[in-house]
Write a structure and sequence with these properties.
Chains A, B: It catalyses: tRNA(His) + L-histidine + ATP = L-histidyl-tRNA(His) + AMP + diphosphate + H(+). Chains A, B: It comes from Candidatus Methanofastidiosum methylothiophilum. The structure is a homodimer of 434-residue chains. The first copy, chain A, has 434 residues and is α+β, with helices and mostly antiparallel strands. Helix content of chain A is 41%, strand content 21%. In chain A, strands 1, 5, 6, 7, 8, 9, 10, 11, 12 and 13 form a 10-stranded mixed β-sheet that branches. A 5-stranded mixed β-sheet of chain A has the order 15-14-16-17-18, with helices on both faces. In chain A, strands 2-4-3 form a 3-stranded antiparallel β-sheet. In chain A, β11 and β12 form a beta hairpin. In chain A, α5 packs parallel to α11. The first copy, chain A, starts with 12 loop residues before the first helix and ends in a 10-residue tail after the last helix. At the A-B interface, α1, β1, β2, α4 and β5 of A face α1, β1, β2, α4 and β5 of B.
Chain lengths: 434, 434
């Protein structure tokens, strides 16, 4: 017997039915924000990732040489592919573009709760707008899609910051090895305060600087109030610009009714190297799970990929943590399949069944029938397993009078109807599952 | 600038919108036949394919060693994965099962018209029934889904045969190296008659045998009539069983109204090693393209994979030839995106826009808005590019009277409406795209 690879998943129809409901809810929410779906290959040139994806992702690549001698890789994230498409087809596009996709991604990691080797990840991105309204759209979309799935502000917290703010703050402290400090801050939540401080000391930060950083990172709170606080505490052209943009985002999110979801949290930096401005993460309030998702601004990636300057903001949300969180809250859809009708047969009635099948399916009903030659009681058992709403019994005896028996499998109510009637006007007798 | 790998594709939103319509039509058709969607990984153990997929597929595998030292492969076809799932989870299932999936597949081939290195392939299979009605269901589903896409009997031909029929025929001629002959027959359409005959002579067939084979393979025609002809020409227990089953399939397909689509064609054998009985291929009538799809019975694969005996019948249809055929007939959907409403703004009206966006999206409208600070005329141009059905102009002056302007972008008709009205009851003013 063969096994599937560790960290990959199979989905039977009932499991798939639940997942399809979740994905279709997500797509609906995202499309309400004017995002359009795109699609890109599952395999790409290796160099697409070696440029800017960050060491962690490079270490986890499924990369190999193809039969033509090219180094290629299964995609570990979508952003590089999307930016590649954007750069190569920019001339066809009217900016800003709002794109989404739910790609299958692969990372060679140690499989654990909420982390798989093959997973799906919703990606949404706005390209071509530097305006804070683009940031607001992206964050609002994140919140709305979670609400549409059944979450509310008691479940989730959106923690927002801005890398430029942190950079300005560090410059104010006389610290210039910004990228090094950023990498340490990204690891902060996984280690003790003492270890964190030691790490900072290890890259030549002094005691005062370290304490100031620690204090700054802990200044988490109400988004708009925090921004006002920062605007009093820090001056200068650089920081004013960042504060102006963050204030606009905070104000709009409040106007849109998302105030209770959002927190200003300067400790959020995000691992990926390519972020340049606003960054955010979504967590469950109880912090039982790893980040549900994260995103932010990455205004320089198109240029790095050989294109024009195209500002960008977006996020990626994996399906594994989402499923864990939905199951915990009991909002994962019921895992069951459904059809409209099962046709059970008694005797040789194949001609009539053929006519029924063609007519009902041409009228868009989901219909199945016996293909095993089972007795009636076993056919009915099977119809129930398929989640059939109705059962149509086609028997030789009934057919002598031109009749068939229609049974509602929920109520058990049964009635004799004319075979020709249901063939010519199925909608008079049946309703559709969806 | 980065390029995508040869034989892979990117889809922009307008291209994707057309493809989504095609895929959703296919899913609908298939679900009307009671097939349920499943999902399996894009990567599998290499051995899953080395067993029974046939040399051609093995040569084209994207196979490599993963970081844990396992030989793995991108999936080149779905059937082995589905059978793996079936065998490993047979105890949870109520047979027969009818499954479908539209996996992304990878084969390292020379990219050409209708043949790509990465493509999608609809797979449908019925497991657990030996009954010819299962074969009929699968072939009917193939025909129905093509009709639902806009094809008719003048476009497509379903050529059906049975490997056992050919085997019995060869045994009657005293030929026992059945598999060798089968491989030659599979190549027959690509070479001249003379080369074909030479190939057969090369595996020690004599002149009479070769001519009889050639005559048999050319005995293409009306399905039911051909079967009746064969039933007169050939006797014996083995062949009677095959004829009985083919006659039932032919009769049912006629009863279902698909007579004009189907032909009996004994030259159809299908490349894959695992087929055991009925085999079929779908072609465009003009034979401009390679086979649109093929399938058949493969009753032994579950056993080969270490499971019980689970009879199976199904087919796989790739998206590349389908797209070529649809474009040739001008039934490929229009490549355009659409949204319900674009909100254009004049002046500082952000609070009002925020309220509108939240309300309209909560009411499931697809809404976009300006995030560029453009002037009105450029906002309207952009709205048209997004395929917006309506335009809502929110301007400071109108707002003084509590009004906004709603314009139908198709008719150009415009009316002043109350801001509070459209916020509280959007469905009174707008209709949805879908």
């Amino acid at each position: 017997m063969f096994e599937r690879l560790r960290g990959t998943r199979d989905f039977l129809p009932n499991e798939m039915a639940a997942r399809k409901k979740v994905f279709s809810s997500i797509k609906k929410s995202v499309e309400e924000f004017g995002f359009f779906e795109t699609d890109t290959p599952g395999i790409e040139l290796f160099e697409l990732y070696s440029i800017k994806s960050g060491e962690e992702i490079i270490d986890e690549l499924y990369a190999f040489e193809d039969k033509g001698g090219r180094m290629i890789s299964l995609r570990p994230e979508l952003t590089p592919s999307v930016v590649r498409v954007l750069v190569s087809r920019a001339k066809e596009l009217s900016f800003p573009v709002k794109w989404y996709s739910i790609p299958r991604l692969w990372r060679y990691e140690r499989p654990q709760s909420g982390r798989l080797r093959e997973f799906y990840q919703l990606n949404i991105d706005i390209f071509g707008s530097e305006d804070p309204r683009a940031d607001t759209e992206v964050i609002s979309c994140a919140i709305k899609l979670l609400c549409d799935l059944g979450f509310d502000e008691s479940d989730i917290e959106v923690r927002i910051s801005d890398r430029r703010m942190l950079q300005e703050f560090l410059l104010n402290l006389g610290i210039t090895n910004y990228q090094d400090v950023l990498k340490k801050i990204d690891k902060r939540e996984k280690i003790s305060e003492r270890d964190f401080k030691e790490m900072l000391a290890g890259i030549s930060l002094d005691h005062t600087q370290i304490n100031e950083i620690e204090e700054f990172l802990n200044s988490k709170g109400d988004f708009l109030k925090s921004i006002e606080g920062l605007s009093c505490a820090y001056q200068g052209e650089g920081i004013s610009k960042v504060i102006f943009s963050l204030r606009k985002i905070a104000q709009s999110l409040n106007d849109r009714g998302y105030e209770k979801f959002i927190t200003f949290d300067p400790s959020i930096v995000r691992g990926l190297d390519y972020y340049t401005g606003m960054v955010f993460e979504v967590h469950d309030r109880k912090r039982e799970f790893r980040a549900l998702f994260g995103g932010g601004r990455y205004d320089n990636l198109a240029e790095l990929f050989g294109g024009e300057h195209i500002p960008a903001v977006g996020f990626g949300m994996g399906d594994a943590v989402l499923e864990l969180m939905m199951r915990r809250k009991n909002i994962w859809p019921e895992e069951k399949v459904e059809i409209d009708l099962f046709i059970a047969t008694i005797g040789d009635v194949e001609k009539e069944v053929s006519k029924l099948l063609t007519s009902l399916r041409n009228n868009n009903f989901k219909v199945d029938c016996d293909i095993m030659g089972r007795n009636l009681s076993n056919q009915i058992k099977f119809a129930n397993k398929l989640g059939a709403k109705s059962l149509l019994i086609v028997g030789e005896r009934d057919l002598n009078e031109g009749n068939v028996t229609l049974r509602d499998l929920e109520s058990g109510k049964e009635s004799k109807i004319s075979l020709n009637g249901i063939i010519s006007e199925p909608s008079k007798y049946l309703t559709k599952v969806l």
